[in-house]
Design a protein that fits this description.
The protein contains six helices and five strands. By secondary structure, it is α/β, with parallel strands linked by helices. It is globular.
Length: 180
C-alpha cells in the first residue's frame, strides 16, 4: 500500500435484506445474514454492522470512512422494494454521520471489474482473483470488495491496475462531491 492509498478509507456495501456484503476500511469482507423471522429488526442488524464498518471516533471505532460505495437499487427487480428499505436505513445513517456515498449500478460494477456489463457472478470472482489475488465466501463479499476498489480507484488510489476502458466505466456512477 502506498502513502497515497493511506489517505483515503473506503467501505463497499452490497446491500440486501437477507445477505449484505461488506468490504471494510481495511479490505476485509463479511456477509451480514439475517433471518426472515426477525422481520424489520433485520434492518437494525444491518445498520449496526454498517456502523461498525464505517467507523467513527465517537464510537471508539477509529476514523470514519471517507467514502462508502453502494450497489444501486435494481430498477426492474422483485428485490427492489426490500433493498430500498435497507438503502433508506443505511443512507440515513451515512447522512447523520456526514459520510459521502456513491451509487454504482450492477452493470457499471461488472464493466469496471470484468470489462463486460452483463453476465453472472463467476467473472467477478475470477477478476478479483486475477487482479487482487482474493477469493471470497460468497458473491455478496465479492461485489462489496469490487465496490470498495471502485471507490479507491475513483479517489485516485487504486489497489491494482485495470485497463482504461474498465476504469472509464466509473464515470457512469453517481459520485458525491468529494475530494479527489
Amino acid at each position: 500500500m502506498t502513502d497515497v492509498q493511506r489517505k483515503f478509507t473506503v467501505v463497499g456495501l452490497d446491500l440486501s435484506l437477507t445477505a449484505s456484503g461488506i468490504a471494510y476500511r481495511d479490505g476485509s469482507t463479511h456477509t451480514v445474514k439475517t433471518k426472515q423471522k426477525d422481520g424489520d429488526h433485520r434492518l437494525t442488524q444491518i445498520e449496526e454492522a454498517v456502523q461498525i464498518a464505517i467507523g467513527g471516533e465517537h464510537l471508539g471505532l477509529g476514523p470514519a470512512a471517507d467514502l462508502v460505495v453502494m450497489e444501486d437499487i435494481p430498477q426492474n427487480s422483485h428485490a427492489a422494494k426490500p433493498i430500498a428499505m435497507v438503502h433508506g436505513v443505511v443512507r440515513n445513517l451515512l447522512n447523520k454521520q456526514g459520510i459521502p456515498y456513491a451509487l454504482v449500478t450492477p452493470a457499471t460494477l461488472k464493466t469496471y471489474a470484468t470489462g463486460k456489463g452483463s453476465g453472472d457472478k463467476v467473472p467477478m470472482a475470477l477478476a478479483a482473483y486475477k487482479r487482487a489475488g482474493r477469493e471470497f465466501e460468497d458473491d455478496n463479499q465479492c461485489d462489496a470488495a469490487w465496490l470498495r476498489w471502485a471507490g479507491l480507484d475513483w479517489l485516485g488510489c487504486p489497489e491494482f491496475s485495470l485497463p482504461v476502458v474498465q476504469r472509464d466505466a466509473l464515470k457512469k456512477a453517481e459520485w458525491p462531491e468529494a475530494k479527489r
